[in-house]
Amino acid sequence: MRIVCIGDVFGRPGRAALLATLPRTRREHGVDLVIANGENSAHGAGISATSARDLFDAGVDVITGGNHTWHRREARTFLEEETRVIRPLNYPRGTPGRGAVAVRVGDIPVLVLNALGRLFMKPIDDPFQAVHGVLEASNGVAVIVVDFHAEATSEKRAMGFFLDGRVSLVVGTHTHVPTADAQILPRGTAYVTDLGMVGARHSVIGLDVPNAVAGFTSGLPSFAQPAVGPVEVNAVLVDVDPASGKATAITRLDYHVD
Questions:
Q1: From the candidates 29, 43, 68, 256, which is the catalytic residue?
Q2: How many CB atoms lie within 10 A of CB 221?
Q3: Which of 24, 52, 236, 245 has the fewest CB atoms within 10 Å, i.e. is most exposed?
Q4: Is 174 one of the catalytic residues?
């Protein structure tokens, strides 16, 4: 089985880049399942029904979230209705939406989980125990993918080793900066600390440069304004043995879209 995981899709430029290129990527690499982080897909902050539809139209199968999931009020009802969009599972009980979804690739069940880190983030329930609880109730599903949306590289690495041998793939999201450590961990779990993003190459993690820089130099609040121009697409391609759930290869897929 071949799975592509795509970094944080940033605003309309990111959505347009995937619409233009993802169908070809799926064909050329024989991809069976595409997972993308969409928490910044609506104008760089939050997710909407419109931004999710664009990602699905591009060929994304499951959309994951993060700390910006709730930036747009409509997400509170939208996530209840659309099962293919998930949010971090370690939000408190009663939070709208779901933190995991089971999809099928042919006859093979695949479980996709989303969790939120705690270091340098707002207080949240323990992501390690939250993921552990879902895995304990996973009923023998072999192919499992975890999007761990976290700030600290140490916390992401710890999650990777915590889940090594228990899931097929752990991908980090949130920083919008791709890391060069894509690897297979000792017990067969594919891992990368951060996928990166799908956003303007000449930007501050997807944001318009003057606006973002002013936020640091003036002391005044800056606002989410996606940068324009050539788009950087950051992703990984992972091969998984569907019988064992072990990953056999992980390769970065990084390219630019004019």
A1: 68
A2: 7
A3: 24
A4: no
Which of the 8 DSSP states describes residue 233?
Answer: E
CA distances from 87 to 70, 186, 234 (A): 9, 29, 21
Helix (H) or strand (E) holding 62: strand 62-64
Q: HSE-up of 45 (CA within 13 Å, CB side)? A: 9
Give one DSSP letter per residue of 162-196, joined into a string: HHBTTBSEEEEESS----S--EE-TTS-EEES---
Q: CA torsion 254→177→215→122, rounded to 10°? A: 130
Task: For residue 226, give the CATH number of its domain.
Answer: 3.60.21.10
The pTM score is 0.96
Range of 229's domain?
2-257
**What type of residue sits at position 123?**
P
- Domain count within the chain: 1
- How far is residue 152's CA from residue 192's CA, in Å, rounded to a whole number? 13
For CA atoms 53, 60, 16, 211, give the dihedral sign: positive
